[in-house]
Amino acid sequence: MRAWSAPEVPVLPVTGPPVQVHDTATGGLVTTAPDGPARLYVCGITPYDATHMGHAATYVGFDLLNRAWRSAGHPVTYVQNVTDVDDPLLERADKVKVDWRALAERETELFRHDMEALRVLPPAHYVGAVESIPAVIDYIERLRRAGTVYQVDDDLYFSVTSDPAFGAVSRLERDEMVRLFAERGGDPERPGKKDPLDCVVWLAQRPGEPAWESPFGPGRPGWHIECTAIAQGHLGEQFDVQGGGSDLVFPHHEMSAGHAHLATGAPFAQVYAHAGMVAYDGEKMSKSRGNLVFVSHLRHSDVDPMAIRLVLLRHHYRSDWEWTDAELWDAVDTLARWRRALALGAGAPALPVVEGVLAALARDLDAPTAVRLVDEWVAATLGTAGLADTSDDSAAATVHQLLDAALGLSL
Description:
Number of helices: 13
Oligomer: single chain
Order of helices and strands: EEEHEHHEHEEHEEHEHEEEHHEHHHH
Radius of gyration: 23 Å
Largest sheet: 5 strands, parallel
Helix content: 40-55%
Shape: globular
């Protein structure tokens, strides 16, 4: 599957510091130390509707990590999946009477355009679930040989109790796991399972649903093992960062880590990083509630995509927050002020803001502090102090590069 076009990224005159990221599994900051290229896996969309601000916040958040690593001198291998066959997609396609493959391709293409507009760097490998089915089948065979998969009717399940490390990613109590499993696509009450938390790795064909041949009979992959197979197939074992929204901590990332641990004997990732949730009208944005703000709707209303990105940058990637139109229009005004400062050419010294922004992003992707530092540089440049004897003739060009390379804002 093809990704979207990559924007040109300027090379900064300063190398950024080592990058720290908050690890959900330990509850603290971890200094990443890539051995060779930094390796990042971020869970992608299930393409049955358009990209909303919750999606955008997650992908812009991990785009900051991609950029921070690059600023620190690390090449990056970034992998993202597309769950282009799954229950929500099939249900939506049936409801609107559209072929599920056509719906998946249409919404994936819209997602590509949204990511291009927001200047999110594309993954090196953008991989669909359908094209990964042979790899998933091979992975299930590994788990069967390890004795961690069993059959319920014609479906195959992963036994969570076979993994002594199960629960280490989410650190949740069992009652909370069961509750979230039921809410997020699991089937804790299914008869015949060894444990309510066991998850399906191969779903036997249901009437009217797509299926692929396998040694276990016709069917399709479970959601969690899809990401395990794709990530390790393209990044190898124990890659640097597994990323996604905080609603994926359990069960998705816990289950994926369990699959990998039993298949390889090693942890899935070195760090598990998670983005916060975005609300609208008082509740988390979700397709079931219908309280969505779509990136494409704003783009088609002539809203500057850089203003959308700036709204996202003003909130720390791990925070939960609420989208408001007032913030969007304030971002539009802010960018107009920044562009006036950049148009002057000369300005307040650039080196302090460059070093400050890179340091902020290296401290768990602290974009709000980085934006505040740029605001301060703009205020100094537009004021008389910034145009005094200490004025830097090349400041605007340097800050322009900084905004693009580190924050993804092309002004």
